[in-house]
Design goal:
With about 325 residues, the protein is α/β, with parallel strands linked by helices. The protein is globular and about 55 Å long. It binds uridine-5'-diphosphate-4-deoxy-4-fluoro-alpha-D-galactose. Uridine-5'-diphosphate-4-deoxy-4-fluoro-alpha-D-galactose binds next to helix 6 and strand 8.
Amino acid sequence: MNVLVVGGAGYIGSHCVRQLIAAGHRPVVLDNLVYGHRDAVAPDLAFYDANLGAEATVGQILRDEKIEVVMHFAAFAYVGESVNDPLKFYFNNVVATLYLLHAMLDAGVKKFVFSSTCATYGVPQSMPITEALPQAPINPYGQTKLDIENALKALAHAHGLSFAAFRYFNAAGAYEDGAIGEHHDPETHLIPLAIDAATGLRPPLQVFGNDYPTPDGTCLRDYVHVDDLSRAHIAVFEKLATPGTALFYNLGTGTPTSVLGVIRAVEKITGKPVPHSFAPRRAGDPPALYADSTKAKTELKWTPKFTSIEPIVATAWKWHQAKPKGYAR
Ligand code: UFG
């Protein structure tokens, strides 16, 4: 299939591009390179440096490239920033996405795969999190993702759009050959910061809170390999053939790992200590978030290849060794 990957130069998008090629599809990348990296995409692939909200441009690309499916990864995703600058998030994550969807409907492209998030659940009532739990985001980032989920439902009903919204847990790791990986600027994610603390590229890691009601007092998260996420996006294609299909899936391994557990894994894989100290809790961090992904496993035959933290960290470490400072900017 011809697939437009919006945000295809970002962390998850660039991995999906490679998985699409491996599965025999033809990805076309659209990315404005605000957070994406041109080097994360092979130079010979079709690449458009454009904004997802540039409706006329996107419409032209959809027609010229005979796009059949659009995957959308191009969101702002810093939770703290979303609290301080909500309009930035509403304009990009909601308004620009609505223009993208309008361009699609106008061009007759009616299959859509959307990056949603476990942040749409807010502080969940129970664990592990199933898709049936109420969604009550506690920050604008999660709210913008939920707003698009709701818009998609309405478009499926009104216009026969078929879509899958994947609610990711903590995307982690890197492509297995180490050629592409995680590089955010600024970096706020635990695994790259822990690796950089181990190698001395960054200061010692601050562990945000050790007084949570969890076994070791640090937050529990569900780290899921970025290539496993990508594989689910491709596995859903055949389900989108029926007009008006509306699908929601949690994507996580179901295995919770604490912050100290991640530190131990990084120490084991790198063979280096991770210097760290305990700091106050970070605002907005729920104590525990982990998935029940039975629905994706059953309906999509999705089987995560990486089910524990160490092999995931091993891929991140391989990428780090190949490019300690990430992509050139
Ligand atoms: N953490 C630290 N020190 C750090 C960085 C993180 O202790 O320097 C802790 C956090 O407090 C958290 C865990 O490590 O308990 C994971 O933090 P990340 O920042 O790596 O990931 P988050 O769980 O905060 O965020 C992820 C996605 C977001 C999404 C969110 C949903 O990156 O896009 O899950 O809650 F919104």
